[in-house]
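Journal club prep — side note

Before the paper discussion, L.F. wants everyone to see what a predicted structure for a comparable chain looks like in token form. Sequence:
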Amino acid sequence: MINFWYEFLGTMLLILLGDGVVANMNLAGTKSSGSSAAWIVITLAWGLGVFVGVIVAGPVSGAHLNPAVTVGLGLIGAFPWEQAPVYIAGQLAGGAAGALLVWVFFRNHFDETKEPGTILACYCTGPAIRNYKNNFVCEVIGTFVLIFAVFYIASPSVEGAGFEQVQFKLGTLEALPVSLVVMAIGMSLGGTTGYAINPARDLGPRMMHAILPMKYKGSSDWSYSWIPVLAPLVGAGLAALIYLVLKVN
């Protein structure tokens, strides 16, 4: 059960800082709204959000903070599948909790913001151009980059799949590589869909958007919601397949 709570805490901090920077840069009346450097600030803060979450959860749970990471590690034999439901439940709950904290923190500014799309963007992702096929492919590719890099950062062994192999054993500056990968994905590939690359990053906060009271809130865009959930899992599967092929050869 301790792994549930550390995945919960790590993901909560990730979403608090990640969704928080979107709110900070876009909601009406904040001191940083309207900045011309918004995308750089947002991608940097999402990476640093990963950094903070990994520092907290890494020494205990391995800091997956993302169902796609859990699934990817399971597929290459570096994580016991029986632990996956505990990890994924913690990640989804942590994502929802982080989004709730963003609402608490920026509540006055949510009430001052009259654009429903801006409010929704503070919780979950959406496409710049709505084309489900292309949006799906973008999320698959972005997640592939993340998971494939994580395999080499974690350096798990494919043999003997003991629980101890899931531990990234990251702390302080050792958490930086994953953060840099997330920043690189955001800066290079994030403009098409907002780079969810993490089902917990999108689904939990989208649910909170649907539940929480906000004066000018619009639709939670559930018609798009399946893409940031399913596509990262496909991307993780592809990353695992190629990783295993390379390991065999």
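L.F.'s comment for the group: Residues 132 and 227 are 8 Å apart (CA to CA). Keep this in mind when we get to the figures.
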